[in-house]
Specification:
By secondary structure, the chain is of the alpha+beta class. The protein contains seven helices and eight strands, in the order βαβααβαβαβββαβα. Strand 3, helix 4 and strand 4 form a beta-alpha-beta unit.
Length: 186
């Protein structure tokens, strides 16, 4: 086992996003994430209420914007089952939109395509193609820990999966347009 970080909202985890030099990539595989900081906005989304102010989210978006303006790259691919869960509709509408506006390259990959590519069934962050943090969640989709993986063949495999997922995934804006068109056609 490598080094572990058990607090996704803590300073140690946050430093991963300010200390990389070139690229930060995330593969997301869950259809729902149970994180305490999303409880209020998710409940508002489900109830059809306006999006509440969220200083932590504003800080995250500012961090992305600053990194992108400094020439760094933030990317993520989310492997999704369709039709989307309520959580994914919330995430795509309320959480991803400001990230994308700040410069994060977000892409969506339908699960069937992800399966054909042989992508892993776990989430991970890969920084600068060398610092690999595999994310662990429990059965209720709650974050348990992120573990640093230093095994070179594992890092190469995760870099390959990143490249394949980015190549085959649908850019976020295109996916949202397609999803909107499908809703209006129904």
């Amino acid at each position: 086992m490598g080094k572990r970080i058990e607090d996704v909202a803590g300073a140690e985890f946050g430093r991963l996003f300010t200390s990389f030099k070139h690229t930060a990539y995330r593969l997301e595989t869950l259809q729902r994430y149970d994180v305490s900081y999303e409880e209020e906005p998710y409940a508002a989304f489900l109830a059809g209420r306006p999006q509440p102010a969220d200083p932590a989210k504003e800080g995250w978006v500012s961090m992305i914007r600053d990194a992108v303006e400094a020439g760094k790259v933030f990317q993520r691919v989310h492997v999704v089952d369709e039709p989307l869960t309520d959580y994914l509709r919330y995430e795509f509408g309320w959480s991803y939109a400001p990230n994308a506006a700040a410069g994060e390259d977000i892409r969506i990959l339908p699960a069937q395509s992800g399966n054909e590519l042989g992508l892993p069934d776990h989430d991970y962050w890969l920084f600068d193609s060398r610092d690999l943090w595999v994310m662990e969640y429990d059965e209720a989709d709650r974050f348990v820990f992120a573990e640093l993986v230093t095994d070179a063949p594992a890092i190469v495999a995760h870099s390959y999966w990143r490249d394949a997922a980015l190549h085959h995934a649908i850019p976020y804006a295109d996916y949202m347009r397609r999803a909107g068109a499908a809703r209006h056609a129904s």
